[in-house]
Amino acid sequence: MWAQACELLEQAERLHRRFFQVHRLVASRPAWEPPVDVIETSDAINITAVLPGVPPDTIDVAIAEDMLVISGRRTLNITSDTTVIHRLEIPYGRFERRIKLPPWRLRPGEPIYANGCLTISLFKSD
């Protein structure tokens, strides 16, 4: 039963890559991108990434050159070898989202994780 569940997961991932990705994924590349909102105010850029079911301590946030990079992994927790998967629509595996930043000086605030959403404020510097 466990082998069947793993095979179904692999099939679902292959189908997802085939129909929703322009290129083939390499194992080290992310399997999915979380949706984000990017909202600018007079003093900051606020970015919210939707990451339900992803523990906050497994999320990495980095600023690399002119990009904000949010990455991590959502794992599928199957606790029984008798589990039967009837539908698998939520993406699992490694994720990464890159957001191009404007050419301003930005000072990152403390990330906030609440209700399955990660919010990062980048404050404009003078």
Report on this model:
The chain is of the alpha+beta class. The chain has a single domain, classed as Sandwich (Immunoglobulin-like). The chain is 15% helix and 37% strand. Strand 7 and strand 8 form a beta hairpin. It starts with a helix and ends with a strand. 10% of the residues are buried.
Task: Give a short summary of the structure.
The protein has 126 residues and is of the alpha+beta class.
Topology (SSEs and partners):
Elements: H1 2-20, E1 36-40, E2 44-50, E3 60-64, E4 67-74, E5 93-100, E6 106-108, E7 112-114, E8 117-124
Antiparallel strand pairs: 1-2, 2-8, 3-4, 4-5, 6-8, 7-8
Pfam families: HSP20
Organism: Methylocaldum marinum
Protein name: Heat shock protein Hsp20
What are the salient characteristics of this protein?
single chain; 126 residues; Immunoglobulin-like; 37% strand; stress response
Helix proportion: 10-25%
- Indicate the low-confidence ranges by residue numbers: 21-26
Q: How much β-strand is present in the residues? A: 35-45%
CATH class equals: Mainly Beta
Give the helix/strand class.
Answer: alpha+beta
Based on Cα principal axes, name the global outline.
Answer: elongated
Number of domains: 1
Gyration radius over CA:
17 Å
Largest sheet: 5 strands, antiparallel
The number of helical elements comes to 1
The CA-CA distance between the termini, in Å, is 60 Å
CATH topology group: Immunoglobulin-like
What's the order of the H and E elements? HEEEEEEEE
Oligomer: single chain
Estimate the mean pLDDT confidence: 86
Q: Which architecture does the CATH hierarchy give at level 2?
A: Sandwich
Number of strands: 8
